Amino acid sequence: MRRYSESPPATASKPASSRSDFSTLRTLLPYLWVYKWRVALALSCLVGAKLANVGVPVVMKKLIDSLTISPSHPQALLVLPLGALVVYGVLRVSTTVFTELREFLFARVTQRAVRTIALQVFRHLHALSLRFHLNRQTGGMTRDIERGTRAVGSLISYTLFNILPTLVEITLVLGYLVTHYDIWFSVITFVALVSYITFTILITNWRTHFRRTMNEMDSKANTKAIDSLINYETVKYFGNEEYEAKRYDEGLQSYESAAVKSQTSLSLLNTGQSMIIAVAVTLILWRATVGVIDGKMTLGDLVLVNSFMIQLYIPLNFLGVIYREIKQSLADMEKLFSLLDQNREIADAADAKPLLTHGAEVRFKHVDFSYDPNRQILFDVDFTIAPGTTTAVVGHSGSGKSTLSRLLFRFYEVNAGGITIDGQDLRALTQDSVRHAIGIVPQDTVLFNDTIEYNIAYGKPGATHDEIVAVARAASIHDFIDSLPDGYKTMVGERGLKLSGGEKQRVAIARTLLKNPAVLIFDEATSALDSKAEQAIQAQLKEISRTRTTMVIAHRLSTVADAQQIIVLDHGRIVERGTHQSLLAANGLYTQMWERQQAKADEEEVLN
C-alpha cells in the first residue's frame, strides 16, 4: 500500500493579488481564440467597413469637383456625377453590410466566451474548499460574478467594435492626408489625437479608483442586505429592522460619495476632450480655407477634409467614454478572474482512482487534524467501523465529532495518519467517487428553494417519479406530501422554511435513501427535534442503516444506545470505546454524560 508522509497544516487560500489590466486581457484571449476563424473574418469585415466609410468623403470630393467643371463640357455633368453617385451609394451600403456582417460573425464568439467563463467560474467555486466557502460573503461574491460576466461582453464590444475600428479609420485618414495634402493637416490631426488620447488616459486612470471604490461599496452593501434578508426571522426576533437599515445605509452612503466623485470628475474629462477637438477642427478648417483661397485646394478638398474631421470627431468623442467603459470592464473582470486564481485546497492526485466498495469498511488511522496550525482539533484518532455496522461518536460540544464527517467527505486533508474505505486511502481516490459512496443526514437540513420532488430527487438527478415516491414512503413523508394541495410540486421556500424541522429531516432522509450510499453519516440528525418527532425519525434512521456502514454523530446518548460500537471523544482524543453497557460499567466520562442526560430527562418529565 502507498505510504503517505505527514502533510503540513492546512491553511486558508490566500487572496489573489491584484491583477494588471494586461494579465486580465491575457486571461480573456484564449476564450476568444477558440473561434479564431470567426474573429479573423469579423476583423476583415471591420477593415472593409472602414475602407468604405473613408471612401465616402473621397467620392463626395470627386462629385463636388465634377460639378465645378467648365460649362464647355456639359456632358461630364451627366456622366461623371452619375458614376460618382452610384459609387457613393455602393460605399454607403457596403459600410452597413460589412458592419452588420461583423456583428453577425462575432455574436457567437462574444456570447460563448461569456457563457464559458461564467460556467468555469461556477465550476471552480464548487471545486474550492469548504474553508473558502465558510469565509466567503455570498452577496458580494455573486455581485462580483454578475458584474464580471457582464463586463466580458462589454470589453469585447468596446475593444473590437469601437477602439479597433476607430484606430483603423484614424490610420486611413492620416495616410490620405499625408499623401494628398499639406503636411500641416496631418500634423494638426496627429497632435490633436495624441493630446486627446493622452488626456483621456491620464484623467480616466485617475478616475478608475473611484470606480473600484464604488464596486467595493456596492458589494459590501449588497452583502449586508442579503445577509439581513436571509436572517429575516432573527432580525424580527430582536426588533433590529432599523439597525439593519442603518448598516445597509452606511454602505449606500459610501457608494454615493464615490459615485458623486466619479460623476464630477467626468465633467472635467468631457470639458477637456471637447476643447481639444474644437481647437483641432478649427485649425484644420482654417488651413483648408486658406488653401482654397490660394488656389491650392478645391471646394471638394475643403468638403473632404471637413468630412474627415467630422468622421473622426464622432468616434473620438466616444473614445473617451469607451476607454472609461473598458477600464470599468477591466476593473469588474479583475475580481471575476481573481476567483479563478483561488487555488483548490483539496485536489485529486494525478493518478487518483475511483473508489471500489465491497462492504465499505471505514477506518480512521491515527488521524491528527487542525483547521488552524495553532489549534489542533483531533489527536491520534484511531478506530474502525466494520462493514454493515453502526458506530456512534459522542462527546461534548467542540470535541471534534463533526470534524470526522468533514474529513470522511474529504473537505479537508488530515495533517497526519489517514482514512480508508475498504483499505483504499481517500487521498489515492477521486473525490467524486468517495462522495458518491457516502450519504449524510445533517443536523441542519438546508433545502433548495424549489419543489419537494426536486429536493428529494437531488440525491439522484434524473430519478423517476416512482423512485422518488418509493423513498418518500420509506422516509414516512409520502402521506404528508400527498395531503398537500400541490403534492410533490409544493415549493419548500428559501432554505426549506415552509416545512417544519421534522418534515425537512424526512426529506433529507428520502434524499439520502435515493442516493443509495454504501456509507451513511447521521450528524446529530435529530438533535433539533422534539422527543416525539425524534423517536419517529430515529426508527427510520435505524431501519435505513441496517445494511449499511453507519457513523452516527450524536449528543443525545439515548439515540445511540444500541450501536455496535460507541466512541467517546474528549478534546479531540478518544478516551473511551465500547458498547453502551460496557461503557456504563466502566463508570467513566460516558457514564457521567449518560447520568446527566437521564437526570435532565427526568426533570423535563416532571415539569410536563
Automatic annotation (TrEMBL):
Positions of the ABC transmembrane type-1 domain: 40-328
**Where is the chain membrane-spanning?**
37-56, 76-93, 155-177, 183-204, 268-290, 302-323
Q: Keywords, A to Z?
A: ATP-binding, Cell membrane, Membrane, Nucleotide-binding, Transmembrane, Transmembrane helix, Transport
Stretch forming the signal peptide: none
Name the PROSITE patterns for this protein. Answer: ABC_TM1F, ABC_TRANSPORTER_1, ABC_TRANSPORTER_2
* Record's keyword annotation contains Nucleotidyltransferase: no
Statement: the UniProt record of this protein carries the keyword Lyase:
no
Matching Gene3D superfamilies, A to Z? ABC transporter type 1, transmembrane domain (1.20.1560.10), P-loop containing nucleotide triphosphate hydrolases (3.40.50.300)
Q: Which domain of life is it from?
A: Bacteria
Q: Where in the cell is it found?
A: Cell membrane
Membrane-topology descriptor: Multi-pass membrane protein
Matching entries from SUPFAM superfamilies are given as: ABC transporter transmembrane region (SSF90123), P-loop containing nucleoside triphosphate hydrolases (SSF52540)
User: Do you know which PANTHER family this protein is assigned to?
Assistant: ATP-BINDING CASSETTE SUB-FAMILY B (PTHR24221), IRON-SULFUR CLUSTERS TRANSPORTER ABCB7, MITOCHONDRIAL (PTHR24221:SF402)
Protein name, entry field = ATP-binding cassette domain-containing protein
Species name: Duganella levis
Q: What is the lineage of its organism?
A: Bacteria, Pseudomonadati, Pseudomonadota, Betaproteobacteria, Burkholderiales
